[in-house]
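hey can u run this one w/ P-hydroxybenzoic acid bound, need the structure tokens asap thx
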Amino acid sequence: MTNAVPSNAALARNASSDLFKPFQLGALQLSNRIVMAPLTRSRAKEDDLPGDLAAEYYVQRASAGLIISEATQISQQGKGYVFTPGIYSQPQVQAWKKITDAVHAAGGKIFMQLWHVGRISHPSIQVDGALPVAPSAIKPEGQSYTKDGFVPMVTPRALDMSEMPGIVEQYRTAAQNAKAAGFDGVEIHAANGYLLDQFLRDKTNQRTDAYGGSIENRARLLLEVTAAVVQVWGGDRVGIRISPLSGFGDIADSNPQALFTYVVEQLNHFHLVYLHAIEGDTGGTRTVPGGFDLQILRRLFNGSYMANNGYDLELALAARDADTADLISFGRPFIANPDLVERLRVIAPLNTPDPATMYGGGAGGYVDYPTFKAS
Ligand code: PHB
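ok here u go:
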């Protein structure tokens, strides 16, 4: 990809791959199989409103077959970092509507990622300094990014049984709001050590009630949330993101293959449109520990499989050649390359994202990465 002049063989390989060809994703026709992964950019304004430049940012990336929005909190309780946007108020709905209208006018498709961080939060981010909520009162290792910078995480409060229907309602309301905001669908964030993942895995879920213990019990909240979201949208507009092998968010499970096999079997009842899997450790190694097989999940799942984590053109082409994924999502490459699809297609060099402007700030490192044509 760093070659100044791509070889004819490489261009011919691109031309013959279906990576760059339209793909039918449920009710939606995507212009190609390349997806923009959800990316936290931390540029939201007061009241968790998406920032003024968000429409421009997403429009610049509208040639992706599908855009998945940055993780967006479904409630104030679900917020874990400063400057992330929400989808729980009418002003937020109106602000997102401008963004989805602009993406659609540019020919793009966009899902919203629905997010509750659970224990990955801090009292200074919660209403009235409340403790973050979790399946069990177990403190995560790590630090929270607050308005005072990085601070140690706190021990969360275990959710009471009586609060569980309210969590499901937060997802239902957010799903309705995302619909009113003009999204093409939603992605349930069940990955990366946030609330739904915390319930799934036995390192973070040590409950002894109907939401803990057995795999069936640990999967209960996710399946209740999925039922509620599917009631709003229909399964063919709902995807789900999982990270069965990731330790992101200080999380782990004693038997991820059994857990996620059960999860996928149960999700099949809802006829979801895609399963979005982070392969390996989030943002890190793609190495899969012995004994785990992502392709078992892919074959079991009755919708499309979207692969993520460290893909480049070569890996993406290989995944389509071997049919190990239907769709490939790219994260960091989309930060620095608004025209990533075109760059991959013509084998142009890629801009490198600047870590200093990934989270927070203004236009710099957000909407000013040049297209290949412009540079
Ligand atoms: C992050 O803000 O770093 C972040 C957010 C959501 C994820 C992963 C990372 O799923």
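Residues 40, 71, 81, 191-192 surround P-hydroxybenzoic acid (CB under 6 Å). anyway lmk if its weird
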